[in-house]
Design a protein that fits this description.
By secondary structure, the chain is of the alpha/beta class. The protein is built from twelve helices and 17 strands. The strands form four sheets. A six-stranded mixed β-sheet has the order 6-5-4-1-13-14. It has a six-stranded mixed β-sheet with strand order 7-8-9-10-12-11, with helices on one face. The longest helix is centred in the last third of the chain and has 24 residues, at 366-389. The radius of gyration is 23 Å and the shape is globular. The two termini are 40 Å apart.
């Protein structure tokens, strides 16, 4: 069987000030045509269909057209909600839509209720695990603690228990939306850290033939049977080195992945991250190759130039982002504020603040770290509840 694995559409999202709805529509065209051309047996969408819980109407209309086109094509689609989606909104009408071959899995309680496909070699069970907010689903799964590893592990226990009741040789695929250890993040994913521990080990997916992951925006292979498709479009300049693709996965007659091919998605415009004095960016012939790109420019002039964005746009009409990092400043301050915070969690930043206001008299102790951790967990859980009920 062949499956097309995609995720993180983020319908309704823009790139800085550029509306991406046209590019997202072009991706949907490409998705449908790829499914047709390769005669796939199912399309797998591993979460973050929308960019926010209450998406703009044009994004909803694009989503609606995508579902209609996949249904008309006769290709089953299995779709889960991600941390950007409102699970309740995305799951409206799931029972009716299911009859058209569009299988929405947005309710954590249904994670062990698979979509079952069959070919001459037997059945394939496709399990959809929507994004699991630990504080909200801990009791549902009887997890030992509030953590991503605990709730996802409990959900996978249910999957394995269901799989054990099926005919010997039943093949299996899981869709999940999570940060798995070994994955490389970018700047455009919303933090899903809880309790200071955000990543889950790939071993949590043991027992299934393939785990189709969403959340991280770079296409990557954790191991041969655990993969991220990545987002079909770039949503931050940190993705300038990404090759945007979908996975075309072939599941063998006896289980396991026999082939995994990356299918490129349309690129609306290349990204370029340029750095240097403004005059050099405007005059150096070496930068000519980037004149048609979306540009992020970091100016290193010792004194901020006059009207820099307008001047930059004379050569780079698609310049979208401008930052300043004067030469010599890094040695004086240890890097810019953004650079010093890059890669640090909210918890770590808060603990640094505690140490700072104490004037170096001591960092947060274990009890204080627990209070900070509980506060961040409560805020994140409350945000999820509000998005669910808005």
């Amino acid at each position: 069987m062949k499956f097309l694995h995609t995720s993180d559409w983020h319908l309704g999202r823009s790139f800085h000030r550029v509306n991406l709805l046209g590019a997202q529509a072009e991706f949907i065209d490409h998705l449908v045509e790829t499914a047709r051309e390769h005669e796939v047996d199912a399309v797998l969408v591993a979460g973050d269909v929308y960019d926010r819980a209450v998406p703009p109407l044009p994004a909803v209309e694009l989503y609606d057209r995508a579902l209609h086109r996949l249904a008309e094509l006769g290709v089953p689609t299995v779709m889960i909600s991600g941390n950007h989606d409102s699970a309740r909104r995305l799951g409206v009408g799931a029972g009716l839509i299911d009859r058209a071959g569009i299988h929405l899995r947005t309710d954590p309680a249904g994670c062990a209720d698979p979509v079952v496909l069959a070919d001459v070699h037997g059945e394939v069970a496709l399990y959809g695990l929507p994004y699991l907010e630990p504080a909200l689903v801990k009791d549902e799964f009887g997890a030992a603690k509030v953590s991503h590893e605990a709730v996802l592990g409990a959900a996978m226990d249910r999957v394995r228990a269901d799989l054990a009741t099926r005919a010997p040789g039943t093949r299996s695929i899981v869709l999940a939306h999570a940060f798995v250890t070994g994955g490389q993040p970018s700047d455009s994913e919303r933090d899903i850290a809880v309790g200071g521990v955000e990543a889950v080990p790939a071993a949590v997916f043991d027992g299934v033939d393939y785990a189709a992951l969403g959340h991280l925006h770079g296409c990557q292979t954790i191991n041969e049977r655990v993969r991220y498709s990545g987002s079909p479009l770039a949503y931050s300049f940190s993705e300038d080195g990404h090759r945007k693709t979908m996975w075309l996965i072939e599941l063998g007659a006896e289980g396991g992945i026999t082939t995994a091919e990356r299918i490129d998605t349309p690129v609306p415009r290349a990204l370029a991250r340029l750095r240097g004095p403004l005059d050099a960016l405007l005059e150096d012939p070496a930068y000519g190759a980037y004149e048609d790109c979306w540009v992020e420019a970091t100016l290193t002039d010792p004194v901020r130039p006059e009207d820099p964005m307008a001047r930059l746009a004379t050569r780079f009409p698609h310049a979208l982002s401008l930052a300043f990092d004067p030469e010599g400043r890094e040695e004086e301050t240890g890097g810019s504020y953004a650079q010093r915070l890059k890669g640090r969690s909210d918890q770590e930043i808060a603990e640094d603040f505690v140490a700072h206001v104490r004037g170096g008299s001591g960092r947060a102790d274990e009890a204080e770290r627990a209070v900070l951790q509980a506060a961040f967990d409560d805020v994140r859980a409350d945000d999820s509840r509000q998005e669910t009920h808005r």
